[in-house]
Amino acid sequence: MTDAQKTAADSPLRTTGGAPPDDGGSSDTGAPIPLLEPREGIPPVIADADALAEVVAAFAAGTGPVAVDAERASGYRYGQRAYLVQLRREGAGSALIDPAACPDLSALGEALSGTEWVLHAATQDLPCLREIGMVPTRLFDTELAGRLAGFPRVGLGAMVEGVLGFVLEKGHSAVDWSTRPLPDPWLRYAALDVELLVDLRDALEKELDRQGKLEWARQEFDAIASAPPPEPRKDPWRRTSGMHKVRRRRQLAVVRELWQTRDRIAQRRDVSPGKVLPDTAIVEAALGLPATVQALAALNGFGHRTGRRQLEQWQAAVDRARTLPEAQLPQPGQQVAGPPPPRAWADKDPAAAARLAAARAGVSALAERLTMPQENLIAPDTVRRLCWEPPRTADPESVAAVLAAHGARPWQVEQVTPLLVDALTATGAENGA
């Protein structure tokens, strides 16, 4: 570990500074300055092919990194698609694009190919950007950079305030972005989200370099940019809130039938599934196993506001589960690859439990010295898998190979391999292999 890494907590970026070129950074008193308007005002919303072509040309001719953000309508609409895309680049200014009117942004994505994209919490926006043809080949994630640099609060507003000395207005983060036309205050908020993103990126790059972590960050960013699209989740109905109360297979079948019925309705109506039927109602029906519409209507979530026709469709789903043959009922537990939950280790394999305790202590101590969250230093699942099935010989080469096989980046392997070797050897992993 370098001297810079040892003193990472003494970051000069805990103060304000680094303002936009034509502004003052922070006030004479050191208080952060509210950022109320984009530099060039609120840009017009791009909603037709001709205007989009102009934006593509302008951003292709721009210089330097491009700030990118997307707004979704989570909690209002079905799925996680983008309803507004915001961009800013030197020489091009800012742009707001309506993906509902311009659903194919692949030309813009191609124009920016090879350019570094600056996003905040990139993994949240990349799926919806991919759907409209925008896929970066290089990126800089300002939230992840903040985590690696040891900032205690890494939301965009907190980072802009703590690093650049400006206050972003965040009052519209949870609005229904599928609304048309979008109100000016919402558009102003959206444009401001990319206004300082490149400035923030530049300041964080300097701080990561000062701490000796810039190459680590680059490896993390490359891993995000090169990651394949996630595969569809198996049995998504099992993630229904309150599932821990549902124990019997027949009850599980009710959850599955109601969840799938709700999902089809939500998709057809293009609304959030929770607005069709809340998870609490699904669990209530599973536990109660109502035999009639009247019994269903008496349950929480199926109150007097639910129409007769709706009640009948929910009761039909319950009836399908009630009459399902035993062989077709879902199993109570989802088959998960890998080790069991750590709480069961002490009974199943006390030696593995001892290895995990030692490994966790070592990771925690190192993460504290490096001033970063433990999960960014090494994925907890990787540590669990190593400790549950350690290599036959717990030497640095073998441990490093296991970590790399589970997706650890080279910098992570370099940092944690020594302490994990110590944890395995101190608890006799080799003898237990």
UniProtKB/TrEMBL annotation:
Q: Which residues form the HRDC domain?
A: 248-328
Stretches for region Disordered: 1-40
One Pfam match: DNA_pol_A_exo1
Gene3D superfamilies the record matches: HRDC domain, Ribonuclease H-like superfamily/Ribonuclease H
The annotated regions of Low complexity compositional bias extend over: 15-32
UniProt cross-references to PANTHER family, sorted A to Z: RIBONUCLEASE D
Q: What is the name attached to this protein's record?
A: Ribonuclease D
Organism listed in the record: Streptomyces tropicalis
